[in-house]
Amino acid sequence: MKHMKSLIAAAVLATASLGSTAAFAADISNNPQALAVLDNTANFGSSFLLNNQNNTFADKFRFAITTVDHDFDAIVSSITRNASTGLDITGLSLFSNAGSLITSGTMESTGAVDIWSLRADNLDVGSYYLQVSGKMVSGTGGSFGGTVMLAPVPEPETYGMMLAGLGVLGFLARRRKAAKQA
After folding, report:
1. 3-class SS of residue 150
2. I want to staple 96 with a disulfide (CB 3.0 to 4.6 A). Which of 28, 100, 174, 177 is the partner?
3. 52 conformational bin, left if phi > 0, alpha if psi -120 to 50, beta if neither
4. What are the distances in angstroms from CA 89 to CA 24, 41, 44, 123, 180?
5. How many helices (H) and strands (E) does the chain have?
6. Which of 25-34, 71-80, 156-165 has the lowest mean pLDDT?
7. Which of 37, 39, 57 minimizes the C-alpha distance to 48?
8. Do residues 76 and 132 make contact, with C-beta atoms less than 8 angstroms apart?
9. What whole-number distance in Å separates Cα of residue 34 and Cα of residue 91?
10. What range(s) does the Ice-binding protein C-terminal domain occupy (predicted)?
11. C-alpha to C-alpha distance for 95 and 76, rounded to whole angstroms
């Protein structure tokens, strides 16, 4: 009888531990997506289905810089009726293709309207990904959307040529002024 009670207790404990794994959050991240960068801008986003309450995501959006260094700016947002429906964006980060964190975004607003922004200066030529992290706060569906902007950084030689051009224009303007006075 004593062994039977121990066996029943072990079975109850095992069943309880199996049931408790369902309480852990599942990762519902979407597969990494390529950003379709056109004229140095791109839009991105993801949607999540019903019945994912407390599940988390970390969606990745890949892009490459193929010419000169670029400045990078991004914004992402999610809008719901109130803070207890849809999803909550918990992070916006920029990583190198190797997975090294370059910079993290700044939360601009949270609640019914989540807004995050991010900026990085002088990104070298190479491959990168933007990661949007969050959690589903209810059993309703949810989505987020964002935009990125890449701005080429002029190379030092460009500044030299610009200054030389301004110098030539100044010389010509001065010479023209002197000719009118004579």
Report:
1. strand
2. 100
3. alpha
4. 19, 22, 14, 25, 66
5. 2, 10
6. 156-165
7. 57
8. yes
9. 19
10. 152-176
11. 16
User: Distances in Å between the alpha carbon of 91 and those of 22, 122, 159?
Assistant: 25, 22, 37
At 148, is the secondary structure helix, strand, or coil? Answer: strand
Tell me the pLDDT tens digit for each residue of 138-165.
999 999 999 999 999 876 555 566 666 6
Bridge-based pairing state of the strands 101-104 and 106-109: unpaired
Which residue do the tokens 């990494």 mark? 32
Query: Tokens 């987020």 sit at which residue?
Result: 144
Residue partners of 54: CB distance under 8 A and separation at least 6: 25, 135, 136, 137
